[in-house]
Amino acid sequence: MSNTQARVPLKARKVSFSWDGTPLHWVPGDPFTTHTINVLHLLLPAGERWFVHVYKQVLPYIRDERLREDVIGFIGQEAMHSQAHDEVLPHLREQGLDPTPYTAQVDWFFEKLLGDRTLPPGRARRWWLMERVALIAAIEHYTAFLGDWVLNAEELDRRGADPTMLDLLRWHGAEEVEHRSVAFELFLHVDGSYRRRVRTWATAFTALVFLWQRGTRFFMENDPTLVDGKASLKDFHVRGRQGLLPSTGDMLRSVPRYLSRGYHPSQEGDTAQAVAYLAASPAATAAERRAA
Amino acid sequence: MPKPRTVALVAGAVLLARGALRRRVRVSPLWPLPALEEPTSGRPRSRALRLLVASHETVAEGVVRLRLEGRDLPRWEPGAHLDLVLPSGLVRQYSLCGDPGDTSSYTVATRLVEDGRGGSREVHEQLAEGMELEVRGPRNRFPLVEAESYVFVAGGIGITPLLPMLRALPDGADWRLLYAGRERASMPFLEEVVKLGGDRVTVVEGRPDLDALEVPAGAAVYCCGPEGLMAAVAERFPDVRLERFAPGAPAGGDFGFELELRRSGRTLTVPAGTTVLDAVREELPDTAYSCAQGFCGTCQQRVLEGEVDHRDELLTDAERRDSMLICVSRSRSDRLVLDM
User: Fold this and answer.
1) Distance from CA of residue B17 to its chain's centroid?
2) Domains of chain B (ranges plus CATH)?
3) How far is Cα A42 from Cα A145, in angstroms, rounded to an integer?
4) What are the sequence ranges of the domains in chain A?
5) Tens digits of per-residue pLDDT, B141-189?
6) Chain B residues near residue A179 by CB distance under 8 angstroms
7) DSSP run (H or E) holding B302
8) In chain A, whose CA is at the least distance from the CA of B86?
9) What is the ipTM of this complex?
10) What is the spatial distance between Cα B245 and Cα A164, in angstroms, rounded to a whole number?
11) How many CB pairs under 8 A join A and B?
12) Are A46 and B48 a contacting pair at CB < 8 A?
């Protein structure tokens, strides 16, 4: 396990986006791609709020100062991701696509199903906390995968995708690549059991696939501009080959990597590319100016 | 080998189940996940709006009024302010002084402060009609309460948050306004205020005599103006409601106060110049925080007692009633009690 890439100090950036000029189908003429990516706005506000909620509780278990600093930086970045995606939802509603029926379920999923449970303090409570820390590590494997993908998805630029939306996705993706090792290192630090890693991967992967296809179908069916909007696996596969969405092959290949005993997130993605994007991103540079 | 009859039965059962499942999903596509009754997502706390500077005009000596146009703007209540993100990235807060019911434009007015921190100069010199401006809010920390009568004290540009209040009060309401300024020409909205209030308005050039101000029992006193005026009014009428139109430079500066952490049973002192977060971390090193600048929200804590001097850029008015971001916000009272 070698971590050859330079370590960057993690900090939250106070970004803000204005959605007034973004059309409903922000990948022009391609509602399926638009809505498949839009599912992020459904899952992330509640999901990343949940990350923050769980990590606040895990702080007392961290015995390594550098890791603690990373986790603190990670928490702020995730909180900002959640806020930024949350701000897209009213914009969708204004365009006639009300996401509330779906997001209310995602809220239930993260706040109730995966929330704090009334458990006796001690082993049971710790078990549930560790299980969630491991779930986050598995999910972060995919967010880093998607972050790396979107930073390199030049096909979206070629199709004339909305620049503000691309900046949101790439700012977010770049921060995911930037902090991709934190969740896994935290999991190794506080628990690290291989069985738990496999078990939580299976749960996270199933939940992601379930929620994602459901979200895409929800958007396609409720899009006011589409008559009989449908989503199919074939649509996904075709767009993957065109480079508009992650390819099915790449996604399948990422599975054994996470399950390999020698896995470390630093082997995935490119920190230098992420840092370079953040140095040029309109939203991130505006945040930088504001902080100065 | 299973019997053909068994195979047919199982296949039939599977088909029936599939059909039932499909019908179920068709009737309610979001079956079977339950939903949270009061969803949290999709209700962002402060939406960034990009508005058009529709007019930029001088309404009194050294005072510029901006009208910012947009669509379906959130409504606001008298006393509310807006965050303007200026082209340089500076964020400044200005009281709304237009019509609260107008959802297509916001109006603010600002006085040029020669030796200020650059915000008003930028509004006066860099902004022009036709430009786009990012704003956040509106937010209200200076709400109009219900009272038998009202006494308003405005100093110069401090009239801006009070003006919508005067307009909002019912016709027969018992109110009086003391409006002070250096000279009449530099006092914005003077004409409108006098027309609105008639003899209920006292206009003073120079320093007003507060002793001459009659405050009936049960009256709500509101004041906005220069620091000196607000301090004098606060001394004379301790219950006054104040709006500082240059937040970030609070009147008393950073004074020290006593902080009780009720759940962990500790009491500590937060000295001037030290944040609540730093003081708390000395005692409770695992306290969660992240950005330390008042925007990520990680360090939000519940406030049990005391009056908070909110300096964050995140919490909504409702959240501010019983919580604070301890990384930047401080106490207005000598003692603050947190639920931690």
Assistant:
1) 55
2) 49-139 (2.40.30.10), 149-243 (3.40.50.80), 257-338 (3.10.20.30)
3) 19
4) 31-291
5) 788 988 899 999 999 999 999 999 999 998 888 999 999 999 999 999 9
6) none
7) strand B300-305
8) A290
9) 0.90
10) 33
11) 124
12) no
